[in-house]
C-alpha cells in the first residue's frame, strides 16, 4: 500500500517483467527470472498472472468474452478451450450467454470478472492484482473482493494485491508492505501494521482511517519527485519526527517479521 505515484504498480509490473528493471534481481522460488530465456519466461508467465486496474481498457474490443478468455488457453495450449471457457465463466459468476457478448456490452464489474477469468485460465500459482477494484463502483467492489477471496481458497492462490484503499487492504491482506517514493518502508502482518505501525509514514496513513481513536497526523508538503528523490531518508522532507541524521543517511531495514526502515528504530 502507499499513495498514488509511490511505485506500487511499477513494482508489480516489474515483477512480471512487463517493465524491465534497471538493476537488481527478481527471485521466484529462488531463481532470478531476469536470467530466463523466452521458453522459461513463457512458463513463468503461466505461473504468475496479472489482473489490471482498469477493466475498461484491458480487454480487446474486437473479441467476445469467450474469445477473450479462450485466448490465454490457446497461447498456453491448455485443454479443451470451449469447456474450459464455460467453466471459468461459471467460476467468476458470468452467465453462459455472455460468451458471445463484446466488452462494450458489459459493466465495469463484469469486465473485471473477465480479467479474473483470463488470469485464472492458465492455472497460476501467484496473481499480481493491481488495484483491481479501484475503478469500480463501491457497490461492486465488495463483490469482486469476495470473489477473489473465494477463488484464493478454492485454488490455493497467492496474491500480491496492490491498493491504496486502507479498508480494502485490511479486508484482503495477510501481510502488508508500505511503500513511499519507490521504497518499502515497513512490512508486517496486517494485524500488526494496523494496530502497531512504527514508521511515521505508516502512522500518518493509518491515522486517516475514520473512527480511529488516534490524532490525525496531517503530512505537510508535496511528495518529492521519484526521479530525483531526497538524500538520506526519502520521507524526511515530510516527516514530523525527522532528525539531523535523516537528511544524510538512508535508514537500514531493521526487524525480522515486522520490518521498518527508520532511524527511530535500531
Ligand atoms: Fe522520519 Fe527520520 Fe524515520 Fe525518515 S528516518 S521516517 S525522516 S524519523
Give a written overview of the molecule:
This protein has 266 residues and is of the alpha/beta class. It has ten helices and nine strands. Strands 6-7-9-8 form a four-stranded antiparallel β-sheet. A three-stranded parallel β-sheet has the order 3-4-5, sandwiched between helices. Strands 1-2 form a two-stranded antiparallel sheet. The longest helix is centred in the middle third of the chain and has 18 residues, at 138-155. 31% of the residues are buried. The site of iron/sulfur cluster has 14 residues, from loops. This is Oligopeptide transport ATP-binding protein AppF. GO terms for molecular function: ATP binding; ATP hydrolysis activity.
In short:
This protein is of the alpha/beta class and 266 residues long. Helices cover 37% and strands 14% of the residues. A 4-stranded antiparallel β-sheet has the order 6-7-9-8. A 3-stranded parallel β-sheet has the order 3-4-5, sandwiched between helices. It has a two-stranded antiparallel sheet with strand order 1-2.
